[in-house]
Write a structure and sequence with these properties.
single chain; about 625 residues; alpha/beta; Rossmann fold; seven-stranded antiparallel beta sheet; 18 helices; binds fructose -6-phosphate
């Protein structure tokens, strides 16, 4: 949430900052701004997307080799020009960009007001920059990096910040606590960014500061230390291999559409090297660490948010029934605050596309303190969650830039299924035949997903039918339930139509009251152990004149008789259902939102990578 970018070197900063902000825009698009220093500070900020800022600043002379930029997802204060970053201190000496939330900003603000400071915005960030200034005035002989460290020791909350000091025109100071920052090193230049993808076209030499670090940069030097003190040191550089082409739409109208279409390849990449050459065993050495003795792990707890939570729920169904190990799937945001009983016999598995979701990070930290082993299923290499984990299974989905998760979900499900087969095998629960069947099914999935793209026109027609509905229900049973939740989430976040996902049997306990002749009800009704029961639930909806849309297995006849619209997906083993069924549900959300004229890549109020709690 919020993208921050900084540059210091010999090139013109402005175009580099604007380009970086465009790459970071998926993290927040309420407003954007930049500050460039060249004798004086030029600050431009505007409510709206980066293109609005670019238009606003066009024709202005914004030159200088040092600058900072920000794209905002509003926390404190409405989206407006005034609340946009960068924020300046009262004297105009310091400019700051910030991602995070300062929790004690009210106390600081009251104190600063008593000192005579005046505030122009509603943000916690403006308080922070003035607090820096007040400490600077109180400690005039200290270096700016020292002043910022001292000030931050009193600050509670989360932040990734970059500070530009008018009186130190060759230095940028950054700091992070609970929010991400990466540094890119070029020849006589440095980049600071919320994520690697915004700078990887300029340099592949990346520094990943630790949580709680302060970073002092000149164009030729980098020094880091923990904000509590200690020695400054030169950090280690890692070379990344991210492909720049993957950051472009590649001819598609939107990142979402590209990422839906990426899925056959991303799933194949997720499987690559993880099934042995005979197709008969799962190869996940990452897991051996946790299971020298499979019976020592008494329980697996999945923690995640949003779509990743739906993949966790799927893991719960699958691992318990296939491997016979107790599993809990938990919203990370609830888990972290409910004083959970966990110990060294628990394995906590964090699922996260970004690896930076604040609540998931906090849940992992808590579980770690209490002695649980930590495994993560993650997409972004070098992100915080893998760094907190003892081992990570990388999803290998490639960058996901559309705010709504698509290929991350299907690769999460793929990774969960691989993990489940590994566990079931260790537990001696799989016959060779069953294991081969599951692995064969997995290997066929990329092709089945490709086949599911043929449903596009049919799904687009259904989107026309539902686009004006006031509310839509998504119902499924068993493994179909997390799929229903995911379908509802995708639809509501992109189309802004109210949508709810429920276990189909729960409908009678309340949601049925929503059904009338204008209510579409999407059933995940593929062949499986609960198919008959789903047909009965469909009857109940039909009796109330609801519009039935059924996702069914190819060749289905009985659901077809009941449904107003049937979408036939290739018949698959139940464990693979979420992957194949996700495709028409993603397309349904995509088409419905497009018909309503919404931006599918950057839906209202949302941002990717939720780095504040
Ligand atoms: C929905 C979506 C979100 C994320 C959630 C967790 O389409 O993208 O619900 O799944 O914010 O994000 P990660 O997986 O990055 O932890």
């Amino acid at each position: 949430m919020c993208g921050i970018i900084g540059y210091l070197g010999t090139r013109e900063a402005y175009p580099l900052l604007i380009k970086g902000l465009k790459r970071l825009e998926y993290r927040g698009y309420d407003s954007a701004g930049i500050a460039v220093l060249n004798g004086s500070l030029s600050v431009y900020k505007k409510m709206g997307k980066v293109a609005v800022l670019e238009h606003y600043a066009s024709g202005e002379k914004v030159d200088g080799n040092i600058g900072i930029g920000h794209t905002r997802w509003a926390t404190h204060g409405i989206p407006s020009d005034l609340n946009s970053h960068p924020h300046l201190s009262n004297s105009g000496r310091l400019a700051i960009i910030h991602n995070g939330i300062i929790e004690n900003y009210e106390v600081l603000r009251t104190e600063l007001m008593a000192e005579g400071y005046v505030f122009h915005s509603d943000t916690d960030t403006e308080v922070l920059v003035n607090y820096f200034e007040s400490v600077l005035l109180a400690e005039p002989n200290r270096a700016i990096s020292e002043v910022i460290s001292i000030a931050l020791r009193r600050v509670t909350g989360s932040y990734a910040i970059v500070v530009l000091d008018h009186q130190n025109p060759d230095i940028l100071i950054a700091a992070r606590k609970g929010s991400p920052i990466v540094i890119g090193k070029g020849a006589g230049e440095f980049f600071i960014s919320s994520d690697v993808n915004a700078i990887v076209e300029h340099t592949r030499d990346i520094i990943y500061p630790m949580d709680g670090d302060v970073i002092a940069l000149t164009k030729n030097t980098i020094m880091v230390r923990n904000l509590e003190g200690g020695q400054w040191y030169v950090p280690e550089i890692k070379v990344v291999t991210n492909a720049v082409e993957e950051l472009e739409k590649g001819g598609y109208a939107s990142f979402m559409l590209k990422e839906i279409n990426d899925q056959p390849v991303s799933i194949a990449n997720c499987l690559a090297g993880r099934i042995d050459i005979n197709g008969s065993r799962v190869v996940l050495p990452e897991l051996d660490l946790f299971f020298p003795d499979i019976n020592a792990v008494k329980r697996i707890i999945f923690v995640a948010c949003g779509t990743s939570y739906h993949a966790s729920l799927y893991a719960g169904y699958l691992i318990e029934s296939m491997a016979g190990i107790r599993v809990q799937a938990e919203y990370a945001s609830e888990f972290r605050y409910r004083d959970p009983v966990i110990d060294g016999s628990d394995l906590v598995v964090a699922i996260s596309q970004s690896g930076e979701t604040a609540d998931t990070i906090a849940a992992v930290e808590l579980a770690k303190q209490r002695g649980a082993g930590i495994l993560s299923l993650c997409n972004v290499a070098g992100s915080s969650i893998p760094r907190l984990s003892s081992a990570t299974i990388y999803l290998q989905a490639g960058p996901e830039i559309g705010v709504a998760s698509t290929k991350a979900f299907t690769t999460q499900v793929t990774a969960v299924l691989l993990t489940t087969i590994y566990l079931a095998d260790k537990k001696g629960k799989l016959t060779e035949e069953r294991r081969k069947e599951l692995l064969g099914g997995l290997q066929a999935v990329p092709e089945l997903v490709r086949q599911a793209f043929a449903l596009n026109d049919q799904v687009a027609a259904v989107a026309k039918r539902i686009k004006d509905a006031p509310t839509i229900l998504f119902l499924g049973r068993g493994i179909g339930f997390p799929v229903a939740l995911e379908g509802a989430l995708k639809l509501k976040e992109l189309s802004y139509i109210h949508a709810e996902g429920h276990p189909a049997a729960e409908m009678k306990h309340g949601p049925i009251a929503l059904i009338d002749a204008h209510t579409p009800v999407v059933f995940i009704a593929t062949q499986g152990p609960l198919y008959e029961k789903l047909l009965s639930n469909m009857q109940e909806v039909k009796a109330r004149k609801g519009i039935i849309i059924a996702i069914v297995s190819t060749g289905d006849v009985r659901a077809k008789e009941l449904a107003d619209h049937c979408i036939e997906i290739p018949a698959v083993e139940e464990a693979l259902l979420p992957i194949v069924a996700a495709v028409p549900l993603q397309l349904l959300a995509y088409h419905t939102a497009s018909l309503l004229g919404h931006d599918v890549d950057q839906p209202r109020n949302l941002a990717k990578s939720v780095t504040v709690e």
